[in-house]
Design brief:
By secondary structure, the protein is an all-alpha fold. It has two domains: 16-171, UbiA prenyltransferase (Tetracycline Repressor, domain 2), CATH 1.10.357.140; 173-305. Helices cover 76% and strands 0% of the residues. The chain contains 16 helices and no strands. Helix 4 (49-73) packs parallel to helix 7 (120-141), helix 9 packs antiparallel against helix 10 and helix 13 (214-236) runs antiparallel to helix 14 (244-265). The chain is flat. It comes from Thalassovita gelatinovora (Thalassobius gelatinovorus). Its main location: membrane. Interacts with CtaA.
Length: 312
């Protein structure tokens, strides 16, 4: 974000608690909290409930901090896009310098406290996640390459790995597979959104794949990534975090996801536009529950294991 953009921002009203909380991207934070909690509980090491609570809290704060830094840097394009124009900075409710201060302060607080409460492997992963999202994705990739979502998706994929590290102090095949599940899900999820929100990205000058390569290419990319995602998601069910419940959920969801991706790939652009991108919106809606149900199934398997019911 340029200094000129910072200077041209004007306050239209006094900010309230809700405005500052919105800086933390609570919807994104909820996904961070959930996947981190699942990673923590699915690990083969028990964690004291109070330490687990503190760990998830600090991970959430770190995720919120990166969201504030993202909003600070992207205020100029948020102002242009209809989907983001009401955010605290472009709406004039929060000053850009305040968002920057909040983001930096909360980042340092979250990383230090997570390290003190658990271990420095988890803290290091959290620090890298914040850096990756705020610097690598937001400041570099997002405005530079149509692969922004592909590479930048790593930032949203780290929380379950951080949760696992909280419990075990390290990284394993299971935590890597949870990372890959989120990482490979991110591109088709966001590209489906871009198919029916393309005008926003064009106005903002963001090189989303739909803008640089067109909708036809984007549809092919969605199909390819969905095909690559399916074996990873189902394969995770063969490890210690899986079991019959997870496997059933994963097979059904990935069959539906593949069907939706094929349907999108086969569509003619005129037909898609005529029915207001109904299939794309349906696929996007499915993508929202896809990740939740996969991690929900991992959580169920972990919860049932002490009773001899979960897992293989």
């Amino acid at each position: 974000m340029s200094d000129a953009s910072l200077n041209t921002q004007t306050q239209t009203g006094e900010a309230g608690f809700g405005d500052y909380f919105a800086l933390l991207k609570p919807r994104v934070m909820s996904l961070v909290v959930f996947t981190a909690l699942v990673g923590l509980l699915a690990a083969p090491v028990d964690v004291h409930p109070f330490i687990a609570f503190c760990a998830v809290l600090f991970i959430a704060v770190g995720g919120g901090a990166s969201g504030a830094l993202n909003m600070w840097w992207d205020a100029d394009i948020d102002e242009v896009m209809k989907r983001t124009a009401s955010r605290p900075i472009p709406s004039g409710k929060v000053a850009p310098q305040d968002a920057l201060a909040i983001g930096i302060t909360l980042s340092a607080f979250a990383v230090i406290m997570l390290g003190l409460a658990t271990n420095f492997v988890a803290a290091g992963l959290l620090a890298f996640t914040i850096f990756f999202y705020a610097v690598v994705y937001t400041m570099w990739l997002k405005r530079w390459t149509p692969q922004n979502i592909v590479i930048g998706g790593a930032a949203g994929a780290f929380p379950p790995m951080i949760g696992w590290a909280v419990a075990t102090g390290g990284v394993s095949l299971e935590s890597v597979l949870m990372f890959l599940l989120v990482f490979m899900w991110t591109p088709p999820h966001f590209w489906a959104l871009a198919l029916f929100m393309n005008s926003d990205y064009e106005k903002a000058g963001v090189p989303m794949l739909t803008v640089t390569h067109g909708r036809r290419s984007t549809r092919k990319h969605i199909l390819v990534y969905t095909i690559l995602l399916a074996p990873l998601a189902i394969g995770a069910g063969l490890t210690s975090i899986g079991g019959p419940i997870y496997m059933t959920v994963s097979v059904v969801l990935n069959a539906l996801f593949l069907f939706g991706a094929v349907k999108i790939w086969r569509r003619d652009e005129d037909a898609a536009s005529a029915d207001k991108y109904r299939s794309e919106k349906s696929f996007f809606g499915l993508s929202l529950i896809y990740l939740f149900l996969h991690f929900g199934a991992i959580l169920v398997e972990a919860t049932l294991k002490p009773y001899g019911l979960g897992g293989w």
